[in-house]
Amino acid sequence: MSSSTTTPATGQDGLWSVEEHLDDILATVRPLEPIELQLLDAQGCVLVEDVTVPVSLPPFDNSSMDGYAVRVADVEGASEEFPAVLRVIGDVAAGAGERPTVGAGQAARIMTGAPLPPGAEAVVPVEWTDGGLGEGPVSGMRAHSAAPEGASGEVQVHRPAEARAHVRARGSDVRSGERALSAGTVLGPPQIALLAAIGRGTVKVRPRPRVVVMSTGSELVQPGESLAEGQIHDSNSFALTAAARDAGAIAYRVGAVADDAETLRSTIEDQLIRADLVVTTGGVSVGAYDVVKEALTAVGDPDEESGIGAGAGVDFRKLAMQPGKPQGFGTIGPDHTPLLALPGNPVSSYVSFELFVRPAIRTLMGLPEVHRVSVRAELVSDRALGSPAGRRQFLRGWYDAEAGQVAPVGGSGSHLIAALAHANALIVLPEDTTSAEPGADVEVVLLG
Protein backbone atom coordinates (compact mmCIF):
# COMPACT_ATOMS: atom_id res chain seq x y z
CA MET A 1 0.00 0.00 0.00
CA SER A 2 1.12 3.52 -0.68
CA SER A 3 1.74 6.01 2.07
CA SER A 4 -1.02 8.52 2.66
CA THR A 5 1.47 11.29 3.28
CA THR A 6 2.44 11.73 -0.36
CA THR A 7 -0.70 13.51 -1.57
CA PRO A 8 -0.47 17.29 -1.04
CA ALA A 9 -3.39 19.49 -0.14
CA THR A 10 -4.23 21.87 -2.97
CA GLY A 11 -7.03 23.81 -1.34
CA GLN A 12 -6.79 27.27 0.22
CA ASP A 13 -5.12 27.63 3.62
CA GLY A 14 -3.56 24.19 3.24
CA LEU A 15 -6.95 22.49 3.52
CA TRP A 16 -7.58 19.22 1.76
CA SER A 17 -10.71 18.96 -0.33
CA VAL A 18 -13.19 16.16 0.29
CA GLU A 19 -12.15 14.59 -3.03
CA GLU A 20 -8.43 14.74 -2.23
CA HIS A 21 -8.90 12.99 1.09
CA LEU A 22 -11.20 10.33 -0.36
CA ASP A 23 -8.91 9.75 -3.37
CA ASP A 24 -5.99 9.26 -1.00
CA ILE A 25 -7.96 6.65 0.95
CA LEU A 26 -9.18 4.74 -2.10
CA ALA A 27 -5.71 4.80 -3.68
CA THR A 28 -4.39 3.03 -0.60
CA VAL A 29 -7.18 0.57 0.20
CA ARG A 30 -7.23 -2.57 -1.96
CA PRO A 31 -9.90 -5.30 -2.23
CA LEU A 32 -9.30 -8.25 0.07
CA GLU A 33 -7.91 -11.46 -1.39
CA PRO A 34 -10.58 -14.01 -2.42
CA ILE A 35 -11.20 -17.09 -0.28
CA GLU A 36 -13.40 -20.18 -0.55
CA LEU A 37 -16.26 -20.14 1.96
CA GLN A 38 -19.18 -22.33 2.92
CA LEU A 39 -22.45 -20.92 1.61
CA LEU A 40 -23.78 -19.45 4.84
CA ASP A 41 -20.39 -17.99 5.68
CA ALA A 42 -20.42 -16.27 2.29
CA GLN A 43 -23.59 -14.30 2.98
CA GLY A 44 -22.97 -10.61 2.27
CA CYS A 45 -19.75 -11.33 0.39
CA VAL A 46 -18.96 -10.49 -3.23
CA LEU A 47 -18.62 -13.31 -5.73
CA VAL A 48 -15.29 -13.24 -7.59
CA GLU A 49 -16.06 -15.70 -10.39
CA ASP A 50 -18.97 -16.63 -12.64
CA VAL A 51 -20.91 -19.66 -11.44
CA THR A 52 -22.29 -22.00 -14.12
CA VAL A 53 -25.05 -24.55 -13.67
CA PRO A 54 -23.74 -28.14 -13.53
CA VAL A 55 -27.19 -29.78 -13.63
CA SER A 56 -30.43 -28.35 -14.99
CA LEU A 57 -32.91 -26.99 -12.47
CA PRO A 58 -35.31 -28.66 -11.95
CA PRO A 59 -33.36 -31.79 -12.93
CA PHE A 60 -36.52 -33.64 -14.02
CA ASP A 61 -40.12 -32.97 -15.09
CA ASN A 62 -42.16 -32.63 -11.90
CA SER A 63 -45.61 -31.76 -10.69
CA SER A 64 -46.49 -28.24 -9.59
CA MET A 65 -49.65 -29.45 -7.82
CA ASP A 66 -50.95 -32.18 -5.56
CA GLY A 67 -53.20 -34.25 -7.79
CA TYR A 68 -53.19 -37.07 -10.31
CA ALA A 69 -50.79 -37.78 -13.18
CA VAL A 70 -52.87 -38.71 -16.23
CA ARG A 71 -52.89 -39.16 -19.98
CA VAL A 72 -54.57 -36.30 -21.85
CA ALA A 73 -56.83 -38.58 -23.90
CA ASP A 74 -58.25 -40.22 -20.76
CA VAL A 75 -59.63 -36.94 -19.34
CA GLU A 76 -60.75 -35.32 -22.60
CA GLY A 77 -64.29 -33.93 -22.22
CA ALA A 78 -64.45 -34.68 -18.50
CA SER A 79 -66.98 -32.73 -16.40
CA GLU A 80 -68.72 -33.02 -13.04
CA GLU A 81 -71.79 -34.44 -14.80
CA PHE A 82 -69.75 -36.86 -16.88
CA PRO A 83 -66.47 -37.42 -15.03
CA ALA A 84 -63.60 -39.48 -16.39
CA VAL A 85 -63.19 -42.54 -14.18
CA LEU A 86 -59.59 -43.74 -13.91
CA ARG A 87 -57.94 -46.58 -12.01
CA VAL A 88 -55.40 -45.35 -9.44
CA ILE A 89 -52.24 -47.46 -9.68
CA GLY A 90 -50.18 -45.95 -6.86
CA ASP A 91 -48.51 -42.89 -5.37
CA VAL A 92 -45.62 -40.77 -6.62
CA ALA A 93 -44.18 -38.74 -3.73
CA ALA A 94 -41.42 -36.13 -3.81
CA GLY A 95 -38.11 -37.97 -3.61
CA ALA A 96 -39.63 -41.16 -4.97
CA GLY A 97 -37.32 -43.59 -6.72
CA GLU A 98 -39.36 -46.12 -8.68
CA ARG A 99 -42.44 -44.74 -10.38
CA PRO A 100 -45.47 -46.61 -11.77
CA THR A 101 -46.07 -46.35 -15.51
CA VAL A 102 -49.39 -44.71 -16.33
CA GLY A 103 -51.26 -46.60 -19.04
CA ALA A 104 -54.61 -46.10 -20.75
CA GLY A 105 -57.42 -45.47 -18.27
CA GLN A 106 -55.00 -45.14 -15.37
CA ALA A 107 -53.81 -42.39 -13.02
CA ALA A 108 -51.10 -42.07 -10.38
CA ARG A 109 -51.63 -39.95 -7.32
CA ILE A 110 -48.80 -37.37 -7.37
CA MET A 111 -47.46 -34.81 -4.90
CA THR A 112 -46.01 -31.35 -5.54
CA GLY A 113 -42.37 -31.64 -6.63
CA ALA A 114 -42.63 -35.36 -7.41
CA PRO A 115 -41.24 -36.57 -10.78
CA LEU A 116 -43.79 -37.08 -13.54
CA PRO A 117 -44.21 -40.86 -13.97
CA PRO A 118 -43.67 -42.58 -17.33
CA GLY A 119 -46.73 -42.49 -19.57
CA ALA A 120 -48.28 -39.46 -17.89
CA GLU A 121 -48.73 -36.29 -19.95
CA ALA A 122 -50.36 -33.89 -17.48
CA VAL A 123 -51.38 -33.40 -13.87
CA VAL A 124 -54.93 -32.67 -12.74
CA PRO A 125 -55.15 -30.92 -9.35
CA VAL A 126 -56.86 -32.93 -6.62
CA GLU A 127 -59.49 -30.17 -6.43
CA TRP A 128 -60.62 -31.23 -9.93
CA THR A 129 -61.39 -34.72 -8.66
CA ASP A 130 -63.41 -36.60 -6.05
CA GLY A 131 -60.19 -37.71 -4.37
CA GLY A 132 -61.23 -41.34 -4.85
CA LEU A 133 -64.16 -40.95 -2.45
CA GLY A 134 -66.91 -41.31 -5.08
CA GLU A 135 -68.53 -38.00 -4.13
CA GLY A 136 -68.17 -34.40 -5.36
CA PRO A 137 -64.97 -32.32 -5.71
CA VAL A 138 -62.60 -32.41 -2.73
CA SER A 139 -60.34 -29.72 -1.31
CA GLY A 140 -57.32 -31.94 -0.64
CA MET A 141 -55.91 -35.40 -0.11
CA ARG A 142 -56.04 -37.39 3.08
CA ALA A 143 -52.61 -38.14 4.53
CA HIS A 144 -51.11 -41.35 3.15
CA SER A 145 -50.42 -42.60 6.67
CA ALA A 146 -54.11 -42.19 7.59
CA ALA A 147 -55.56 -43.55 4.36
CA PRO A 148 -53.06 -45.66 2.38
CA GLU A 149 -55.96 -47.04 0.34
CA GLY A 150 -56.14 -43.63 -1.39
CA ALA A 151 -53.33 -44.77 -3.67
CA SER A 152 -55.58 -47.43 -5.17
CA GLY A 153 -59.17 -47.80 -6.36
CA GLU A 154 -60.79 -45.32 -8.72
CA VAL A 155 -60.79 -41.55 -9.04
CA GLN A 156 -63.29 -39.37 -10.84
CA VAL A 157 -61.81 -36.44 -12.78
CA HIS A 158 -64.18 -33.51 -13.36
CA ARG A 159 -62.16 -31.40 -15.83
CA PRO A 160 -60.01 -32.05 -18.89
CA ALA A 161 -56.28 -31.20 -18.93
CA GLU A 162 -54.03 -30.07 -21.73
CA ALA A 163 -50.67 -31.69 -22.36
CA ARG A 164 -48.04 -30.59 -19.81
CA ALA A 165 -50.66 -28.93 -17.59
CA HIS A 166 -49.25 -28.36 -14.08
CA VAL A 167 -45.91 -29.87 -15.07
CA ARG A 168 -42.68 -28.01 -14.35
CA ALA A 169 -40.34 -28.91 -17.19
CA ARG A 170 -36.77 -30.05 -16.66
CA GLY A 171 -34.48 -27.01 -16.97
CA SER A 172 -37.36 -24.51 -16.85
CA ASP A 173 -35.52 -22.56 -14.12
CA VAL A 174 -31.92 -22.78 -15.37
CA ARG A 175 -30.26 -25.20 -17.79
CA SER A 176 -26.99 -27.02 -17.48
CA GLY A 177 -24.11 -24.84 -18.71
CA GLU A 178 -25.93 -21.55 -18.21
CA ARG A 179 -24.51 -18.83 -15.97
CA ALA A 180 -26.26 -18.86 -12.64
CA LEU A 181 -24.50 -15.85 -11.06
CA SER A 182 -21.95 -13.35 -12.35
CA ALA A 183 -18.75 -12.23 -10.68
CA GLY A 184 -19.43 -9.10 -8.62
CA THR A 185 -22.75 -10.35 -7.27
CA VAL A 186 -23.35 -9.70 -3.57
CA LEU A 187 -24.60 -12.95 -2.06
CA GLY A 188 -27.91 -12.46 -0.28
CA PRO A 189 -30.46 -15.14 0.71
CA PRO A 190 -31.87 -15.64 -2.85
CA GLN A 191 -28.39 -16.04 -4.34
CA ILE A 192 -27.38 -18.51 -1.64
CA ALA A 193 -30.59 -20.43 -2.29
CA LEU A 194 -29.70 -20.69 -5.98
CA LEU A 195 -26.16 -21.86 -5.22
CA ALA A 196 -27.50 -24.53 -2.91
CA ALA A 197 -30.12 -25.60 -5.46
CA ILE A 198 -27.48 -26.20 -8.14
CA GLY A 199 -25.37 -28.18 -5.70
CA ARG A 200 -22.65 -25.71 -4.74
CA GLY A 201 -21.48 -26.23 -1.16
CA THR A 202 -18.76 -23.58 -1.26
CA VAL A 203 -18.12 -20.47 -3.29
CA LYS A 204 -15.15 -18.19 -3.97
CA VAL A 205 -15.70 -14.67 -2.65
CA ARG A 206 -13.98 -11.63 -1.26
CA PRO A 207 -14.60 -11.87 2.49
CA ARG A 208 -16.48 -9.25 4.41
CA PRO A 209 -13.86 -6.87 5.83
CA ARG A 210 -13.22 -6.93 9.57
CA VAL A 211 -13.55 -3.41 10.93
CA VAL A 212 -12.47 -2.46 14.45
CA VAL A 213 -14.18 0.64 15.84
CA MET A 214 -12.99 2.44 18.95
CA SER A 215 -13.87 5.76 20.53
CA THR A 216 -11.57 7.83 22.70
CA GLY A 217 -12.19 10.12 25.63
CA SER A 218 -11.92 9.86 29.40
CA GLU A 219 -15.38 11.43 29.65
CA LEU A 220 -17.08 8.50 27.91
CA VAL A 221 -19.22 6.02 29.83
CA GLN A 222 -20.86 2.90 28.46
CA PRO A 223 -24.65 3.03 27.96
CA GLY A 224 -26.40 1.48 30.93
CA GLU A 225 -23.91 2.93 33.42
CA SER A 226 -24.56 5.97 35.59
CA LEU A 227 -23.02 9.28 34.64
CA ALA A 228 -20.79 11.23 37.00
CA GLU A 229 -20.24 14.97 36.73
CA GLY A 230 -18.77 15.87 33.32
CA GLN A 231 -19.36 12.46 31.76
CA ILE A 232 -21.41 11.47 28.71
CA HIS A 233 -22.47 8.15 27.25
CA ASP A 234 -20.40 6.75 24.39
CA SER A 235 -22.62 6.85 21.31
CA ASN A 236 -20.01 7.13 18.54
CA SER A 237 -18.63 3.61 18.80
CA PHE A 238 -22.14 2.19 18.66
CA ALA A 239 -23.15 4.37 15.71
CA LEU A 240 -20.03 3.59 13.69
CA THR A 241 -20.09 -0.14 14.46
CA ALA A 242 -23.69 -0.28 13.28
CA ALA A 243 -22.79 1.79 10.20
CA ALA A 244 -19.89 -0.55 9.39
CA ARG A 245 -22.19 -3.55 9.59
CA ASP A 246 -24.73 -1.76 7.42
CA ALA A 247 -21.98 -1.18 4.85
CA GLY A 248 -21.29 -4.93 4.73
CA ALA A 249 -18.44 -5.35 7.21
CA ILE A 250 -17.94 -7.62 10.18
CA ALA A 251 -17.54 -4.94 12.82
CA TYR A 252 -16.00 -5.17 16.27
CA ARG A 253 -16.69 -2.45 18.80
CA VAL A 254 -13.97 -1.69 21.35
CA GLY A 255 -14.92 0.08 24.57
CA ALA A 256 -13.96 3.72 24.91
CA VAL A 257 -10.25 4.30 25.50
CA ALA A 258 -9.16 6.91 28.03
CA ASP A 259 -7.11 9.93 27.00
CA ASP A 260 -3.73 8.25 27.30
CA ALA A 261 -1.50 7.85 24.25
CA GLU A 262 0.28 4.69 25.38
CA THR A 263 -2.99 2.99 26.33
CA LEU A 264 -4.43 3.83 22.93
CA ARG A 265 -1.36 2.58 21.06
CA SER A 266 -1.44 -0.67 23.02
CA THR A 267 -5.16 -1.12 22.42
CA ILE A 268 -4.82 -0.56 18.68
CA GLU A 269 -1.88 -2.95 18.51
CA ASP A 270 -3.91 -5.65 20.27
CA GLN A 271 -6.76 -5.21 17.78
CA LEU A 272 -4.68 -5.47 14.60
CA ILE A 273 -4.86 -9.26 14.62
CA ARG A 274 -8.56 -9.07 13.71
CA ALA A 275 -8.64 -5.89 11.65
CA ASP A 276 -8.70 -5.21 7.93
CA LEU A 277 -9.55 -1.61 8.79
CA VAL A 278 -9.34 0.40 12.02
CA VAL A 279 -11.65 3.34 12.73
CA THR A 280 -11.12 5.68 15.66
CA THR A 281 -13.32 8.58 16.70
CA GLY A 282 -12.25 11.56 18.74
CA GLY A 283 -8.88 13.03 19.60
CA VAL A 284 -7.89 14.34 16.15
CA SER A 285 -8.14 18.11 16.58
CA VAL A 286 -5.73 20.59 18.17
CA GLY A 287 -6.57 20.21 21.87
CA ALA A 288 -4.12 19.26 24.61
CA TYR A 289 -5.96 15.94 25.13
CA ASP A 290 -6.37 14.89 21.50
CA VAL A 291 -4.92 11.46 22.21
CA VAL A 292 -5.34 9.85 18.77
CA LYS A 293 -3.25 12.52 17.13
CA GLU A 294 -0.66 12.26 19.90
CA ALA A 295 -0.49 8.47 19.79
CA LEU A 296 -0.38 8.00 16.03
CA THR A 297 1.54 10.98 14.74
CA ALA A 298 4.73 9.29 15.90
CA VAL A 299 4.13 5.93 14.22
CA GLY A 300 5.85 4.91 11.01
CA ASP A 301 9.30 4.05 12.33
CA PRO A 302 11.03 2.20 9.44
CA ASP A 303 13.18 0.29 11.95
CA GLU A 304 10.18 -1.12 13.80
CA GLU A 305 9.38 -4.66 12.66
CA SER A 306 6.17 -5.18 14.60
CA GLY A 307 3.50 -3.16 16.36
CA ILE A 308 1.56 -0.25 14.94
CA GLY A 309 4.72 1.68 14.05
CA ALA A 310 5.68 -0.88 11.41
CA GLY A 311 3.18 0.64 8.96
CA ALA A 312 3.66 3.67 6.73
CA GLY A 313 2.24 6.10 9.29
CA VAL A 314 -0.82 8.24 9.88
CA ASP A 315 -1.25 11.74 8.50
CA PHE A 316 -3.53 14.24 10.25
CA ARG A 317 -5.04 16.92 8.09
CA LYS A 318 -7.77 19.53 7.90
CA LEU A 319 -10.50 19.30 5.26
CA ALA A 320 -12.52 22.04 3.63
CA MET A 321 -15.79 20.62 4.97
CA GLN A 322 -18.27 21.16 7.78
CA PRO A 323 -18.78 19.17 9.92
CA GLY A 324 -15.67 16.96 9.95
CA LYS A 325 -12.79 19.35 9.37
CA PRO A 326 -10.11 17.37 11.32
CA GLN A 327 -9.35 13.94 9.82
CA GLY A 328 -6.59 11.37 9.96
CA PHE A 329 -5.63 8.60 7.58
CA GLY A 330 -2.75 6.21 7.09
CA THR A 331 -1.60 2.63 7.49
CA ILE A 332 -0.26 0.97 10.61
CA GLY A 333 1.26 -2.32 11.71
CA PRO A 334 3.23 -4.96 9.80
CA ASP A 335 0.34 -5.59 7.38
CA HIS A 336 -0.10 -1.87 6.67
CA THR A 337 -3.66 -1.95 7.98
CA PRO A 338 -5.60 1.18 6.93
CA LEU A 339 -6.67 3.44 9.80
CA LEU A 340 -9.18 6.27 9.54
CA ALA A 341 -9.25 8.69 12.45
CA LEU A 342 -12.54 10.57 12.62
CA PRO A 343 -13.52 13.59 14.74
CA GLY A 344 -15.35 13.03 18.00
CA ASN A 345 -18.52 15.10 17.67
CA PRO A 346 -21.32 12.65 16.87
CA VAL A 347 -22.53 14.26 13.66
CA SER A 348 -18.99 14.94 12.44
CA SER A 349 -18.12 11.34 13.13
CA TYR A 350 -21.13 9.92 11.28
CA VAL A 351 -20.85 12.24 8.28
CA SER A 352 -17.15 11.38 8.02
CA PHE A 353 -18.00 7.69 8.12
CA GLU A 354 -20.46 8.04 5.26
CA LEU A 355 -18.05 10.05 3.12
CA PHE A 356 -14.82 8.15 3.77
CA VAL A 357 -15.14 4.93 5.78
CA ARG A 358 -18.09 3.44 3.94
CA PRO A 359 -16.38 3.74 0.53
CA ALA A 360 -13.25 2.18 2.04
CA ILE A 361 -15.24 -0.79 3.39
CA ARG A 362 -16.97 -1.37 0.08
CA THR A 363 -13.64 -1.10 -1.74
CA LEU A 364 -12.24 -3.82 0.53
CA MET A 365 -15.27 -5.92 -0.43
CA GLY A 366 -14.49 -5.49 -4.11
CA LEU A 367 -17.76 -3.79 -4.98
CA PRO A 368 -17.83 -1.81 -8.23
CA GLU A 369 -19.93 1.00 -6.71
CA VAL A 370 -18.75 2.26 -3.34
CA HIS A 371 -20.62 5.54 -2.89
CA ARG A 372 -24.07 6.40 -1.59
CA VAL A 373 -26.62 7.42 -4.21
CA SER A 374 -26.89 11.18 -4.81
CA VAL A 375 -29.91 12.95 -6.31
CA ARG A 376 -31.04 16.51 -6.94
CA ALA A 377 -33.96 17.89 -4.97
CA GLU A 378 -35.85 21.09 -4.30
CA LEU A 379 -34.95 22.65 -0.96
CA VAL A 380 -37.99 23.16 1.28
CA SER A 381 -37.21 25.54 4.13
CA ASP A 382 -38.69 28.56 5.87
CA ARG A 383 -35.38 30.38 5.56
CA ALA A 384 -32.16 30.41 3.58
CA LEU A 385 -29.49 27.92 4.65
CA GLY A 386 -26.11 29.52 5.32
CA SER A 387 -22.77 27.87 4.66
CA PRO A 388 -19.20 29.11 5.30
CA ALA A 389 -17.28 30.19 2.22
CA GLY A 390 -14.73 27.67 1.04
CA ARG A 391 -16.28 24.81 3.01
CA ARG A 392 -18.48 22.00 1.73
CA GLN A 393 -21.30 21.71 4.22
CA PHE A 394 -23.33 18.58 4.93
CA LEU A 395 -26.67 19.22 6.64
CA ARG A 396 -29.09 16.62 7.90
CA GLY A 397 -32.27 16.43 5.87
CA TRP A 398 -35.45 14.52 5.16
CA TYR A 399 -35.85 13.58 1.50
CA ASP A 400 -39.29 13.04 0.00
CA ALA A 401 -38.67 10.97 -3.10
CA GLU A 402 -42.22 11.28 -4.41
CA ALA A 403 -42.21 15.07 -4.21
CA GLY A 404 -38.55 15.41 -5.17
CA GLN A 405 -37.99 17.69 -2.19
CA VAL A 406 -35.68 17.81 0.81
CA ALA A 407 -36.10 19.68 4.09
CA PRO A 408 -33.43 20.35 6.72
CA VAL A 409 -33.71 18.51 10.03
CA GLY A 410 -32.33 20.27 13.09
CA GLY A 411 -29.50 22.78 13.07
CA SER A 412 -25.96 22.65 11.75
CA GLY A 413 -24.26 21.92 15.09
CA SER A 414 -21.98 18.89 15.00
CA HIS A 415 -23.29 17.67 18.37
CA LEU A 416 -26.98 17.47 17.37
CA ILE A 417 -27.35 13.70 17.28
CA ALA A 418 -31.14 13.76 17.77
CA ALA A 419 -31.56 15.51 14.42
CA LEU A 420 -29.37 12.88 12.77
CA ALA A 421 -31.66 10.14 14.09
CA HIS A 422 -34.57 11.72 12.20
CA ALA A 423 -32.73 12.32 8.93
CA ASN A 424 -32.61 10.08 5.85
CA ALA A 425 -30.30 12.23 3.75
CA LEU A 426 -27.48 14.75 3.74
CA ILE A 427 -27.99 18.11 2.05
CA VAL A 428 -24.75 19.13 0.34
CA LEU A 429 -23.87 22.81 -0.02
CA PRO A 430 -20.69 23.19 -2.12
CA GLU A 431 -17.66 25.30 -1.28
CA ASP A 432 -18.75 28.26 -3.44
CA THR A 433 -22.24 28.44 -1.90
CA THR A 434 -22.73 30.67 1.14
CA SER A 435 -26.53 30.66 1.07
CA ALA A 436 -29.15 28.28 -0.33
CA GLU A 437 -32.55 29.88 -0.73
CA PRO A 438 -35.85 27.99 -0.32
CA GLY A 439 -36.70 26.37 -3.64
CA ALA A 440 -33.06 25.97 -4.64
CA ASP A 441 -31.93 22.87 -6.48
CA VAL A 442 -29.51 21.06 -4.15
CA GLU A 443 -27.51 17.85 -4.07
CA VAL A 444 -28.79 15.21 -1.68
CA VAL A 445 -26.90 12.13 -0.49
CA LEU A 446 -29.34 9.37 0.41
CA LEU A 447 -28.67 7.50 3.64
CA GLY A 448 -29.91 3.92 3.39
Characterize this entry briefly.
The protein has about 450 residues and is of the alpha/beta class.
In helices, the fraction of residues equals: 10-25%
State the secondary-structure class. Answer: alpha/beta
Shape: elongated
Looking at how many chains there are and whether they match, the oligomeric state comes to: single chain
Total helical segments: 8
Indicate the radius of gyration in whole angstroms: 32 Å
Description:
With 448 residues, the chain is of the alpha/beta class. The chain is 17% helix and 28% strand. The strands form eight sheets. Strands 16-13-17-21-20-18 form a six-stranded mixed sheet, sandwiched between helices. A five-stranded mixed sheet has the order 8-5-7-6-9. The N terminus is likely disordered.
Summarize the helices and strands and which ones pair or pack.
Blueprint: H1 18-28, E1 35-38, E2 46-47, E3 51-52, E4 62-63, E5 67-70, H2 72-75, E6 84-92, E7 106-110, E8 122-125, E9 154-157, E10 167-168, E11 179-181, H3 189-197, E12 202-206, E13 210-216, E14 220-221, E15 232-233, H4 236-247, E16 250-257, H5 261-271, E17 277-281, H6 291-297, E18 313-318, E19 321-322, E20 326-332, E21 337-342, H7 346-364, E22 374-379, E23 385-386, E24 392-400, E25 405-408, H8 417-421, E26 425-429, E27 435-436, E28 441-446
Parallel strand pairs: 6-7, 13-16, 13-17, 14-15, 17-21, 19-24, 22-25
Antiparallel strand pairs: 1-12, 2-12, 3-11, 4-10, 5-7, 5-8, 6-9, 18-20, 20-21, 22-28, 23-27, 24-25, 24-26, 26-28
Provide the descriptors you would attach to this structure in a database record.
448 residues; disordered N terminus; alpha/beta; 8 helices
